[in-house]
Amino acid sequence: MTVDFIHPDNPTANVAGNQHWGHATSKDLLYWTNQPIAIFTSSQSEGIFTGSAVIDANNTSGFFPNATNGVVAIYTLNTPTAQTQDIAYSHDNGYTFTKYASNPVLSANSTQFRDPKVFWYAPTSRWVMVVAFATDFVVAMYTSPNLISWTHASNLTYPGLVSLGAQAECPNLVPIPTLIDPSLPLSSSNTASTDTYLLVISVNPGAPLGGSISTYLPGTFNGTHFIPLTPYTTRLTDFCKDNYAAQFFDDISPPVSMSWASNWQYADSTPVDTTSNLTAFRSAFSLPRTHVLANISVAGYDLLTLPPDLSPLYTTSKPLAASTDLANASLTIDYGFQVPSRAITFTVNITNVPLNTTLATGSMNFTVLSSTSGESIRGGFFISPPNSGAFFLSRARTYGFDDTNPFFNKDFSVTSPVTGGSAAAGGAYGSTGQTGNWSMQVVVDRSLVEVYLDGGKKVGTMVYWTEGELDTLILGSKGVSAETGVGAEVWGLKSVWAGKEVGGRMGEL
C-alpha cells in the first residue's frame, strides 16, 4: 500500500509564501519519496493552503465513472480578499489534479475560513468537513453527499482556546480507540473501539511557551455534532514548542499523524540545512506518530502518542550499546564513525521505584554532545523530591541558532510521574509500600529531537542547531535506591533520504 502525504510547499524559497501542495509517498511511513508538486496556484496572488484528500470509492462526486480509486483534494484557496474551500480531482492516484471548474464549493465571505479536513462518515453515508473560522475560534461541521454541495451542520466554539491565542486553525477530527489496560503497551488485544473521536486544533500565536502549538479534545461525534468530553479544558499535544498543525492519515487505525516540527515565532529565520548530500531545506516534519486514548488522569481521557517502530532503520543487528545495570552508573558511546546519518534512538527503563516520595531517590540524565564544538542537548528525569516526577529537555548549549532569536526558548520541562501500584492508590506519587516503573524513548536527528515519556503519556518535540555535529552520548543515573533498576539501549539509525534528493525538499534522518 502506498501512503500519500500532502504538505505545504514553497517551490521558490525557504520561507512561508507562494504556497503549493507538495507531495511525498511511502510504503512504510519511514522511507519517503518526494513527488512533483500536486496542486499549483493559478496566479501569484493565490495560495493553496491546508486541506485534505480522500478516495471517492463510490464515485459520489461523479468525477470517476467506472473507477473506485479516484482521489478528491479539498483545500483552502487563499487570496487577498477571501479564503474559500475548493476541490480538485485526480485520475492517477493523486499525482496530478484537475481543479473543479465550478470552484469554490464552499465560501463564507471571510478571509479567515480555512483548513478543511474531510472524511467519510458511514452511518449517515455522508462526507463530513471540519473547517476553522480561525479568528472566531469556531470549528464548523459541514456535510455533503458528493463533495460538491455542502450543508452546514453545527459549530463548536472552544472557550479554552480564546485564552491562549489569536487564531485557531488546521482542525482534524478522527475516530480513536482507547487502551483497555493503560499499564500495558499498545497492542490489538489492548485497545477497544469506541464512539470516541479526537479533535486536534492548532493555535497561533499565543501558545503558553510562545508562538504556535496544537491542542486536543476527546469527545463523541454523531455525524453532525462533536461533543467534547471536557469542553473547558485546554490540553496540549506537546511540552516543547515545535509541534504544530498535525495532519492525520485516513483509514489507519489507531490513527497516525505527522506534524510540522517548528514554531511560527522563528520558522522563517532558522538555519537552512545545506548538508552536502541534501538539497537545502529549512523545516522538517515529525516522525509518524500513533495515537490512542487512555483513562489515566483526573482530567479523563488523555492522549497517548507513540513513535513508529524504528527497527527497520537500525544500522546494526545489535544495539550500539546496552546495559541492564545503569543504576548509579553511566555509559558513554562515540557513535560518529558508526552512524553516518548521526541519527540515534535510545530507550531508558527505570523499574522498582518507590511510589512513596520519602523513599524515592536519585535521577537519570543524558547528554548528546559534539566532540568538536562541545555543544550538547541534555535531558533528565528526577526521582527525588522536591522535583519528583519532573523531566527536563534543554537546547541551551547549542549555538547554531539560539542566540539570534529571543523566542527560541532554551529549556523545557514537564511532570511525568512514576506510575504503578494498586488501582486504589491511583499509581501516583505518595503511595506507600509500592513500587512503580517509568520509561523513555528519545530520537535524535541532526536538527530535531523527539522525546516520548512513559509510553507516550508526554511528548516533547524540539528543534536545535549546532555548529558541530553531535556524535557522543552520555547516559546514566545517580543516587537511586538499592532496589531500583535502570536499563538502556542505544541504536544507530540509517538515513531515509540517502540518494533521494529530489525536487529540493528533504526531511530529517
SSE blueprint:
Blueprint: E1 3-9, E2 20-26, E3 32-39, E4 47-55, E5 71-78, E6 83-90, E7 98-99, E8 113-121, E9 126-133, E10 138-144, E11 151-157, H1 159-162, E12 168-175, E13 178-179, E14 191-192, E15 196-203, E16 213-221, E17 226-228, E18 235-236, E19 244-248, E20 256-260, E21 289-297, E22 300-306, E23 321-323, E24 330-334, E25 343-354, E26 363-369, E27 376-382, E28 390-397, E29 411-415, E30 419-420, E31 435-444, E32 448-453, E33 458-463, E34 472-478, E35 485-493
What does this structure look like?
The chain is mainly beta and 509 residues long. It is built from one helix and 35 strands. It has one helix at 159-162, and strands at 3-9, 20-26, 32-39, 47-55, 71-78, 83-90, 98-99, 113-121, 126-133, 138-144, 151-157, 168-175, 178-179, 191-192, 196-203, 213-221, 226-228, 235-236, 244-248, 256-260, 289-297, 300-306, 321-323, 330-334, 343-354, 363-369, 376-382, 390-397, 411-415, 419-420, 435-444, 448-453, 458-463, 472-478, 485-493. Strands 23, 25, 30, 31, 32, 33 and 35 form a seven-stranded antiparallel beta sheet that branches. Strands 24-34-26-27-28-29 form a six-stranded antiparallel beta sheet, with no helix packed on it. A hairpin with a 6-residue loop joins strand 26 and strand 27. The model is unreliable at 422-432 and 501-508 (pLDDT under 50).
Brief overview, please?
With 509 residues, this protein is mostly beta strands. It has one helix at residues 159-162; strands at residues 3-9, 20-26, 32-39, 47-55, 71-78, 83-90, 98-99, 113-121, 126-133, 138-144, 151-157, 168-175, 178-179, 191-192, 196-203, 213-221, 226-228, 235-236, 244-248, 256-260, 289-297, 300-306, 321-323, 330-334, 343-354, 363-369, 376-382, 390-397, 411-415, 419-420, 435-444, 448-453, 458-463, 472-478, 485-493.
